[in-house]
Design brief:
This protein is mostly helical. It contains 6 helices and 3 strands. It has helices spanning about 1-15, 55-60, 65-105, 115-155, 155-160, 200-205, and strands spanning about 30-35, 40-45, 45-50. It has a 3-stranded antiparallel beta sheet with strand order 1-2-3. Helix 3 packs antiparallel against helix 4.
Amino acid sequence: MKRTQYICSLVLLAVTGCSTHYAPQPGPRISTTVRSGGIVYVRNGESFPHGFAGEGLVDAVASDADAKAAAETYHRRNVGGFVATAVGAACLTGGVILLASEVARDDGNSNGTTGSDAVMAGAMLCAVGGLIAGPLVMASGQTYQFDAVNIYNDHVDRRTQPAWPGPGAWPWGYPTTPLPGIAPDVPRGGALPSAPASPASASGSLSPPAPAPPGP
């Protein structure tokens, strides 16, 4: 009894100790941490536990269509791989039980292939197929987990900043003052507006008239 308690305490300590020691800063990007032995996604201070088959990742990236598609693929393959593995394990268990019962009933006089032999062979094939295909399907979805996080983080600026040019680029609308070095628009079919005449050109000259020459 004491040995069992000791082992359980060690397992509990190992599970609770499997946590990251650094808390990521709150922000719009997704950070991946480990808490109590499980993966947790953190975004804007909100935590999304990974869940049994990755449904937490789908919730964490739900606001980005591309990242959500990758997360859903990851989730579906986790579910499919788990189901295939469970079916394979059930077939293996049934095949072993059937084999044990056949051995117990065998009196050494049975000849040829019986129906039980066919069922046993099918169960073993099911077990081998499920136990091999299940982990492979789950492994193929692992890359979509990383894709979902990377796509979401790469699209943060696109989701949080307005497109340029656009009405939201300037708090008060588009700037009305022309930038330096840019000529004003030329009216269609006409020339540039001429500058107003200066007083000098209107009066002919700004200098006083020359004095008349002295008389004889």
